[in-house]
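Because discrete structure vocabularies remain unfamiliar, it helps to consider an illustrative case, giving the amino acid sequence and backbone structure tokens:
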Amino acid sequence: MNKRIGAISHMTTPVQAWLQGSAYAVLLVVAVTLIILAKTDNVVVERVRTAVVDSVAPLMEVANRPVVVISDTIETAQNYVALKSENEELRRQNEALRGWQITAAKLQGENASLRGMLSLSPEVNPSITTARVIADQGGAFVRSVIVNAGSLDGITKGQSASTGFGLAGRVTEVGRHSSRVVFLTDISSRIPVFVGSDRSRAIMVGDNSPSPSLLYLDQDTTVKLGDTVYTSGQGGGFAPGLPVGIVHSLSETSIKIRPYTDWGDIEFLRLEDYAVKQKLDVLYSDSEAEGLQ
């Protein structure tokens, strides 16, 4: 019996050796054949491939679920941390705003009391007309635009022109259907202003550059970078308190202002009538450029 088993084992050994030796060759031939069949766009191969993909797709979906769950969990945790940090920052800002609100309420009450003691007339709410810029007359010597509102719309010479950020200029010429607005950067512009919290008086002068200059400052005036500049209302040209810009450049020869208004992005202007007496000879020289064409 043992001899028979030994004989069978002796006979199968060459077969196993042959199969082991040729297995890699067989697999290589099968792989090359499958690649060739896939490249030939064979209908049968395509159907088989589609069927295999369809049958494996549910398994792939199931296998992919843990990855999706883990990814969603990580993203949720990250969003939670970000939202928590943002919530804390908003809380701090809210507390700061509450403090400013209380301060503003106190100042408003004090202001009303002082106005009553000084018998000051109440502030006048301006009459506002919004106009579209229809022509730009900018050039080497003029910084002005034409807007599509005129006397028929209630526009009068001397009204201030503003954007949503601050004062832009003033109306210098009025037609029936259009008006000319000269910017505060124009070389003919002269605007009485206050500078900083000390309310130092000065004249802001345009020089056809994007940054007007400050002249005729009060004696012993200290101007700092970042000081706010706003209209003083002196001379009757503008209502007081209109925001103009900030001090952004100081040198021994000049003080430059960066206006709040973006000159390269003006599509609309608010023409504001504060019912103040205009003194055009104080604010603008007689050498203004040509008017409406």
